[in-house]
Amino acid sequence: MPCQRRNTFRIGTFVVVKVLVLSIFVNIYFSFFFIGKIHRNASFFDDVTENDCTSPTTGRPPRGPTNQSSGRCDPSDILVAIKSGGSNQRYRHRRNLWRNSICAHNYQQYGIQYRFMIGLPIKHNIDINGHNQAARDTSEEIDDALALRNESKTFRDIQILPIRDIYEELYLKTIHVLDWLNQEARGPLVVIHDDEYCASVDELLSLCHEAVSDVDNSHIFAGTYLWSEAKYEEQRAFDGSFSPYFSGAILVFSTDLIKNVMEDEDTMYAGIWASHAEDLQVGRWVDKQNKLNETAPVRIIERPKLLVTVPEPIIINIDKLKTCKPIQTSAQCMKEAIYLGEFSAPDECAKLTAGNPACTDTFMFSSTQLDW
Fold it and tell me: Which pLDDT score, from 0 to 100, does residue 339 have?
């Protein structure tokens, strides 16, 4: 080829080739630039598809169209936020039970995306008048944060929220959860539930079909038990008004309803109007959007069978079992089947193994290799 014999080029040929090479370089540069822009704007679901459930994007990508108007209801478009805590072993144990339960199996079988919503651990009282720039986390908070970080890297199903996990401020955590759902959801429905439960997939699909087939362009707000009227004074707002709300164990929303709630600046000032109970506050936010948007009314749907409880493992008395003896030492399993959590002794692990129908009569235990 001529390009291999540069000493035979004439000046004109050299200039033409140089211009062509420069043009190709510019085109390649801008192609990668726009590809990079598209990748940086990818949604949570794109990350899940490409990277096998990697953490969601930290930025706020442009909101894409939902499937509500398309008449399409794909279970993999449903996004579930699971409320959990990060401050002690009890919550980690509950998450491990959930991961090994029929709940996780059903969600994964239908491709339903989910994340545990967890705030940062806190164990100390906060002095609101303090101004200590040298303040630091306590040793317990650091231990909890390290355990949470390790758990997040292991299972890749945790979303850390930029807020301290304080029960009295659960309504603020709920705002962060709704904001995350608003950023990441692409389908017609989003779900919030506690880590002791999951949603019935059949009920979810039924609600999903209602959402996409609705000709009135209405929004859906669903749950298991509806407070349709005030039974106690604490259920009323400070002005004496009442908004219907569902008990907070599980809530289902149309995606566009969440969008409207989060775009309303009054949502952030929730404490001005009513108490901090998050389920009561959610009812107020939804009720306000229902009154503001006459062209898109909110349909309140009570579904008693929507909630499924995570079954507790059967604990068997270890004394009635055969002696727990090692069959092999100094070895790691080729493949981990079910992670049961952290235990102080093999007998404790044996109890849970014996009571789990998914387990055989063998398990792996290590007192030193905690990452196993």
Answer: 63
